[in-house]
Amino acid sequence: MRIAQLQRPIAAAASGISRTAPSTTIRQLRDVFGQLRIAANNAVVEGRRHATVKAQGAYKLRDSSTIPKKLGAKKSGDSYVIPGNIIYKQRGTKWWAGENCGMGRDHTIFALASGYVKYYRDPARHPNRQYIGVVFNKEDTLPYPSHAMRRRKLNMVATPIPPPQPEPAISASGIPTQVVRQGYGRKPHPRDERVIKLKDDGSYAYAEESWRLGKLIRTEKRKLGSRRVAMKHRRRRAKAIALEMRAEREDKIARRKEALDAQRAAKAKRMREYRARRAAEAHQKASGPGGEMPPPGAGEKTDPPRVEA
């Protein structure tokens, strides 16, 4: 602290000492100087100048419990809403969701369809509850009568659908209007069946429809779900492919076996015909030119007699 700041307190103390008697003791001097109120760190409490302008403090947010929740009605009665519009925000179930309305997990009531807001009570559902609903026509009132027809807004117009005309099996030119080609193998799969129709341009040519051509290409679908589900589908697909390959292999073996059996049967037939022809030739040769049959045993070879020693 500067000495100039102690000028007034010391002057006041000196004037007090001069007014006292000469027999002032050290104790009185201590009392007089005690009025200066000088602290231990040599800082004078009295006589200090303070700021005359209050400083700007730091800005503090209010407590979260005081922030308004903005609860209450967001749409009044007969107001037009679209799906997703919030109608009422609340804590607890002061209002309940009625016709064409839903309630969120924080008890917020919102619209599920386009229409007009209606606040109403329904004693048939509950004697004390208050409901909020949405109607399609502004002049309607809720609740609807019991067992009344359900009102839905599908934005569709009823249009009669004519029955499909049966297509003739034979065209005007006398040829079939469509040809069905089966798959390969002894047991063709229905998936490999192809329907080829006759063109309408008068060219007498067959062509396959575009959507059927697109079905011939097998595309792999996008994998959904977890890795466990993907592995499950993969095992199922691998099993189906293995079964299909096994069926094709068995069909190939069966066709090969049928071909071998047919070859063996044809060879056996040729051998029987050959033997029959040779037997006929031998019989004709043995019968002689006159056609008489030789006596039995005439053409057989006999062994010479054995002479015993």
Description of the molecule:
It comes from Daldinia eschscholtzii. This protein is of the alpha+beta class and 309 residues long. Among the domains are: 1-48, no CATH class; 70-135, RNA polymerase II/Efflux pump adaptor protein, barrel-sandwich hybrid domain (OB fold (Dihydrolipoamide Acetyltransferase, E2P)); 178-215, no CATH class; 244-283. The chain has helices at residues 7-19, 26-34, 210-215, 227-286, and strands spanning 72-73, 80-81, 86-89, 96-97, 101-103, 109-111, 115-121, 130-135, 178-181, 194-198, 206-208. It has a 4-stranded antiparallel beta sheet, with no helix packed on it. The chain has a 4-stranded mixed beta sheet with strand order 2-7-8-4, with no helix packed on it. A hairpin with a 7-residue loop joins β10 (194-198) and β11.
Topology:
Blueprint: H1 7-19, H2 26-34, E1 72-73, E2 80-81, E3 86-89, E4 96-97, E5 101-103, E6 109-111, E7 115-121, E8 130-135, E9 178-181, E10 194-198, E11 206-208, H3 210-215, H4 227-286
Parallel strand pairs: 4-8
Antiparallel strand pairs: 1-3, 2-7, 3-6, 5-6, 7-8, 9-10, 10-11
Could you name the key traits of this structure?
309 residues; alpha+beta; 4-stranded antiparallel beta sheet; 4-stranded mixed beta sheet; mitochondrion; Ribosomal_bL27; ribonucleoprotein; structural constituent of ribosome; Large ribosomal subunit protein bL27m
Secondary structure class reads: alpha+beta
The order of strands across the largest sheet is 1-3-6-5
Q: What is the C-level CATH assignment of one domain?
A: Mainly Beta
Number of helices, counting only DSSP H or I runs of 4 residues or more: 4
CATH superfamily of one domain: RNA polymerase II/Efflux pump adaptor protein, barrel-sandwich hybrid domain
Radius of gyration: 58 Å
CATH topology value of one domain: OB fold (Dihydrolipoamide Acetyltransferase, E2P)
| Shape summary | elongated
Provide the CATH architecture of one domain.
Beta Barrel
N/C terminus separation: 174 Å
> Which whole number gives the mean pLDDT?
81
| Count of β-strands | 11
- Work out the helicity level: 25-40%
Low-confidence stretches: none
Q: Spell out the helices and strands N to C.
A: HHEEEEEEEEEEEHH
Percent of residues in β-strands: 5-15%
Largest sheet: 4 strands, antiparallel
